[in-house]
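INTERNAL AUDIT FORM
Audit reference: QA-55
Scope: verify that the stored structure record matches its stored sequence.
Auditor: D.O.
Record contents follow.
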Amino acid sequence: MLSTVKRLVVDTYQQQHLSDVARRVARARMTYLRPAKLRNLEACLRRIEADAVPGDCLEFGVALGGSAIIAATQMGAERSFVGYDLFGLIPPPSERDDDRAHARYAVIASGRSEGIGGDRYYGYEPDLLAKVRFNFAAFGLEVDGRKIRLVPGFFADTLPLAGDGAVAFAHIDCDWYDPVLLCLEHSYRRLSRGRVHHPRRLQRLWRLPSRNGRVRGAACRSATRRCHPQCGIHEGLRPFPPRD
C-alpha cells in the first residue's frame, strides 16, 4: 500500500516536468515508460539539441509509438527519426535469456498478456504498423519515409541495410539478449561524439533500462557487458541525467 502511494506521489511530481506531448502520450496509454523515464528521455533529447550533436534519432522497439512520437516531436528540423520494430508478436527469447524472460514470453504467446491500462496488448494488434502510423498522425506527424521512417522486420534483417550515417540519440527498448546486443553493436559504432545512447536502454555511456540506478534485466546487463569490449568501451555504466 505504502509503495503504491509513494509511486503515485513520485509519478505526479515527475509529470509536472514533462512536456505537453509527453503528458498526452502517457494519457493516451501509448508508452510503458513511467513519468520519470519519460522525463529522462526528454532530458536526453534536449541535451543533443543544446550541444548541437550531429546525427539522427533511432529507436529499437517502437511498440505503440509513444516514446518515438516524443523523440520525433522534439528533435531538430535537420534530423530524421527511424524506428525499428517487428510490428507484430515478438519472437521467443533464446537460451541466453533467464527464466523470467521465458515465463514472460509464455504469457505473451498464450494470448493472456494485458496491455497498458487494460488495453489490448500491442503485440496482438492485427496491423500494429498501421496503428503506430495512426498514433503518429494523431500528434500531427506524418510517417513520410524521409523525415520519419518506420522499418518493419527482424533487427537481424533490417539493421544490416540501415547504412552508417551519424546517430545523435538511440533509444533501445527491445526485449531479450540477442536483439539488445545486436542493437547495441549497431548503434554504438554510429554514435556522434557527445551523443546520447539511451538504452531505456544508453547515453554517451549507456543508459540501459534501470531501477535505482542499476541496469535492469539480466539479458540487458549481459548484452551490455559483452558489447563493451567489442565496441572498445572501457568506461563503466552511469545514469543520465547524473544524480546529485
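Auditor finding: record pair retrieved intact. The radius of gyration is 17 Å.
Action required: none
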